Each structure stands twice: as structure tokens, then as C-alpha cells.
Structure prediction request, 166 residues.
Amino acid sequence: MKKLLTITASLLVLLLGTFTLVSCGDDDSKESKKDFDTYAHYSFEMGEDLTNFYEVKITYLSLDGQQHVVNLKQGETKWNFDERTALDCPKFRCIIELFAKEDATIDYSSADYFDLGYAYKCSAYSPSVGIKVSQNKYPGSFERDKVIEAVKANPYRLVIDFPEIY
Prediction:
């Protein structure tokens, strides 16, 4: 009788241990799925000379639907926006524009070449919209005697209006 009671108690402890492990696994996977439902990531990197020749204006929506406008300062070479939320926010927008400076000059540098290149990556996801991704790179190295001419030939440039129409 004592042996039967010991075996029954051991089986009961083993059975309870099995259920405990299984239930912990379910809770973890449910929580990891609730970390976020919607995200937006916008980034813009540019050559070290771009803000010397162009005003850079970035207009974007945060996931709460608020519009923000950022004007990069001279010398800035990176900008990014990262946001996540547990809500389904289907409205995404990031517009990056370049406006030539009227007073652009090459006098600030003794370089032979100027780097006006840039790269952007915009990605966003929401359950109702799905995933949207757009990225591109524009290499823009200009010789010293041609950089002002190149800027005047391209006084305005729309880098990206995200999301693009698919």
C-alpha cells in the first residue's frame, strides 16, 4: 500500500510538472505576439556636403497621425524615425525634399570632389495594410568646378514620397 501511494504521488508530481511546462510555453508565445502590431522606420543618410548645397526638408506622420516637419541643419548627415505601437495604424507618410540653397558656395572647402549622394529606406507595417518598403541610393560625387552647375540644374528634388503607389 505504501509503495502504491508513493508511485501515485510521483506520477501526480510528474503530471503536474508537465502541465506547468506546457502552460509556460503558451503564455510566452502570446506575449511575444503582442509586442507590436504596427511599426514605421524611415531613415535618410547623405553625403557630407549635401546640406551645404541643399536645404533638406522631411515631412512625416508619426503613428499617432501627427504630422512633423524636420529641416536638417548644415553638416547633418543622418536622420531616422523609428516607432512601434500595439495599435493598428494604417496611415504612413514620409516625404523627403531637397531645395537648392541660393547662397551655396564651394569656398568652405578645398576638396576636389563634393559628395551630394544620399540613401533612404522607408519601411512600415500594419495588420490592415501589410508591409510597405522603399529604398534607394543616389551616388552623387561632383568635381569642384561642376558642383555649383549641377546644383543649379537640379534646384528641387523629391527624394521620396512614401508610401509610393504600388
Remarks:
- Residues 21-32 have pLDDT under 50 and may be disordered.
- The CA atoms of residues 37 and 104 lie 44 Å apart.
- The radius of gyration is 27 Å.
- The chain has three helices and ten strands.
